[in-house]
Design brief:
Number of domains: 2
Structural class: alpha/beta
Oligomer: single chain
Largest sheet: 8 strands, mixed
Bound molecules: adenosine-5'-diphosphate
Shape: globular
Radius of gyration: 21 Å
Helix content: 25-40%
Order of helices and strands: EEEEEHEEHHEHHHEEEHHHHHEHHHEEH
Mean pLDDT: 96
Distance between the termini: 8 Å
Low-confidence stretches: none
CATH class of the largest domain: Alpha Beta
Number of helices: 15
Strand content: 15-25%
């Protein structure tokens, strides 16, 4: 059975076609600059790359091009669209309506549209991707997999803010959490690797990429997470500020003459590693070669690692201990300096990182970087959000 996974952004659309028998990727690619001049589709299969430059004024045309590429003589991998059993869509915000993946029906699309106010940047392109696929493949079942769903098990004490309860009820202001598919995937991998029942494990999963979030997982279920009402809360990230006193908004508006939109744009796009370093949001630029010759690069990365350590301590307290810390995503999988500084000097918690194993950690596979006498396992686990979406799609359509 082959499942097409779609992750639609405002001007991009990433896809993977996965054969579920062995869970291998048959083809993948992405459409870029949808609705902008110079749009192109990059399609990869069998180690070959094909680039198609053609105008893609909207997501419907983009999906048509993807399906053409998947079925074409030149670079196709299936004879016709009937070979694609189902489509799994990433949907960023499920609000309190979805605590699990769901078969997409007109009611589900309506509900996702109602949730646009909670995710104005993300849900609209996700919905465009779904509607475009529905047009091109009207008879193929589609499943929505929500970034927020894994976090739906958080207790009230973790997801409520200290604002009037009525405003939570009326305006839906609460912590939702994001990156759920990644936290769910690495949690499953860690449980399998540790070979213990989920209900005996307390795991802290650190998804560190351009956007970063940390989750506390007890008995296989999320009990707390660092991102909040939006992905702005938590760690300082590539360009997002992370936790900040809300009153800063007043100073920014008054002193920089920002509107609310300009303030949010600043907090989302000009802060974090980019703002602190003044150089780049990309951890490669900040850590590789002689990047630390610039002390502000080092300062930015040290603040990031310090913030991770903060959350590890906080979540160990919340769970009454921790058995395993997982590092994943672009930075988590590739930046030993961050992992080391997030874990060093935490012997009181039973956390002891092995410097050598951390430095020489193999890429693309699960690695244990904890010292022999560390009570807490420290694992590096490559994430695979597309595979979670494909597995969830298979589970829901039950084929
Ligand atoms: P996104 O949130 O966009 O999915 P990723 O998980 O791909 O992000 O992470 C992007 C971040 O990971 C960037 O800051 C990038 O510098 C970092 N990264 C990716 N690969 C490497 C690498 N080989 N070495 C160091 N950093 C890396």
């Amino acid at each position: 059975m082959k499942i097409l996974v779609i992750n639609a952004g405002s001007s991009s659309l990433k896809y993977q076609l996965i054969d579920m028998q062995k869970e291998n990727v048959i083809a993948k690619g992405q459409c870029e600059r949808i609705g902008i001049k110079g749009s192109l589709l990059t399609h990869k299969n069998n180690g070959k790359e094909f680039i198609f430059k053609k105008d893609m004024p909207n997501h419907v045309i983009a999906i048509q091009m993807v399906l053409e590429a998947l079925t074409s003589k030149e670079c196709g991998v299936v004879k016709n669209m009937e070979e694609i059993s189902a489509v799994g869509h990433r949907v960023v915000h499920g609000a309190e309506d979805y605590n699990s993946s769901v078969l997409i029906t007109p009611d589900v699309i309506k509900c996702c549209k109602e949730n646009i106010e909670l995710a104005p940047l993300h849900n609209p392109p996700n919905i465009m991707g779904i509607e475009a696929c529905k047009k091109a493949m009207p008879n193929t079942p589609m499943v929505g997999v929500f970034d927020t769903a894994f976090h739906s098990t958080m207790p009230e004490v973790a997801y409520l803010y200290g604002i009037p309860y009525e405003d939570y009820k009326q305006l839906r202001i609460r912590r939702y959490g994001f990156h759920g598919t990644s936290h769910m995937f690495v949690t499953g991998e860690a449980i399998r690797y540790l070979d213990k029942p989920a209900d005996q494990l307390k795991i802290i999963t650190c998804h560190l990429g351009n956007g970063s979030s940390i989750t506390a997982v007890k008995n296989g279920k999320c009990v707390d997470t660092s991102m909040g009402f939006t992905p702005l809360e938590g760690l300082p990230m590539g360009t997002r500020c992370g936790n900040i006193d809300a009153a800063v908004v007043e100073t920014l508006c008054n002193k920089k003459d920002f509107t609310i939109n300009e303030t949010l744009n600043y907090l989302n796009k000009k802060c974090g590693m980019l703002g602190l370093s003044g150089v780049s949001s990309d951890f490669r630029d900040l850590t590789m070669g002689n990047a630390f010759d610039n002390p502000r690069n080092k300062l930015a990365v040290d603040i990031f690692a310090y913030s991770i350590k903060n959350y590890i301590g906080r979540y160990a307290a919340v769970m009454n201990g921790c058995d395993c810390i997982v590092f994943t995503a672009g930075v988590g999988e590739n930046t030993p300096y961050v992992r080391y500084n997030a874990c060093v000097d935490m012997e009181y918690l039973g956390v002891k990182i092995d410097k050598d194993k951390n430095e020489n950690c193999p890429r693309g596979e699960i690695a244990d970087i904890s010292a022999k006498d560390s009570k807490v396992k420290i694992l590096v686990i490559p994430t695979n959000e597309e595979l979670v979406i494909a597995r969830e799609t298979k589970r829901i359509v039950n084929i």
